[in-house]
Amino acid sequence: MTNALRDQTIRDFGEQWTSYRTNEGYYGSSDLFADVFGPLLDPAALRGAQIAEIGSGTGRFIRILLDSGAAAVVAVEPSAAFDVLTAQVSDPRLTCIRARGDELQLTNALDYAFSIGVLHHIPDPHPVVRAMFAALKPGGKIAIWVYGAEGNSSYLAIAGAARAITTRLPHSILAAVVWMLYWPLTLWMHLSRFLPLPLAGYLRRVFARLTPDKRRLVVYDQLNPAYAKYYRSEEVRRLLERAGFIDVQLYHRHEYSWAAVGRKP
């Protein structure tokens, strides 16, 4: 059952990223990348580094990693988005691999291994994190971002009920549902400037900076994949430490999600 759910989620993202292909504006910016990891990671430290990203999608963060001055970047993507990735991002420093994260076959090769917005869509992420650990050099670092449970209780009550239906919808119907949801969400975004609404910090500081089409993509992304887990802080820490990482540090980004960095001894 776990593998079937994993494979269905991969297919869901293949359809999503072949329908929503672009990464313009704040959505694909170095400013957003810096916001994701906050005080845990200085993007300047990536200059000259050997890096892999697990679950690269259409290359949203690959371009940022290359622009940071990385010496080499490995993009790992298992879904149909792989064709979009290779068509949209071309650089002699880039190697693209169509595979799941747990199929990464590198040993002591990387300075950094990233997984941004991916592990929470994998029913059993432990093999992926172990593969990332093996791929890192001693002293190398893992950097991940996942949905958070803390601070999201009101949102999860609504989203959980909605996902029971939306994960079963075909793309065209789900896209139409997203359009209908967009307008009340836009009102919610504006009201969050004055009222202490759920996710107010995220709506003001991140969502409001996105273009309208990328706001709709964010909504679609919440409602589409077959599997999504919202992690508690201790679960994030345990996920990394179980794979062998030490010095694990967490950052509660806008009080709704978790970024984490750990080091391979």
Task: Give the topology, please.
Layout: H1 2-19, H2 30-37, E1 50-54, H3 62-67, E2 72-76, H4 81-88, E3 94-97, E4 110-116, H5 126-135, E5 136-147, H6 153-166, H7 171-191, H8 200-205, H9 212-223, H10 233-243, E6 246-253, E7 257-263
Parallel strand pairs: 1-2, 1-4, 2-3, 4-5
Antiparallel strand pairs: 5-7, 6-7
Keywords:
about 260 residues, alpha/beta, Rossmann fold, 2 domains, 7 strands
Q: What is the N-to-C succession of helices and strands? A: HHEHEHEEHEHHHHHEE
What is the helix fraction of residues, given as a range? Answer: 40-55%
What is the CATH third-level topology name of the largest domain? Rossmann fold
- Radius of gyration computed on alpha carbons: 18 Å
Name the structural class.
Answer: alpha/beta
Q: What is the average of the pLDDT values?
A: 95
Please describe what this structure looks like.
There is one protein chain. With 265 residues, this protein is an alpha/beta fold. The chain has two domains: 2-149 and 228-263, 3-Layer(aba) Sandwich (Rossmann fold), CATH 3.40.50; 154-223, no CATH class. It has ten helices and seven strands. It has a seven-stranded mixed β-sheet with strand order 3-2-1-4-5-7-6, sandwiched between helices. The longest helix has 21 residues, at 171-191. The chain is globular and about 50 Å long. The relative contact order is 0.16.
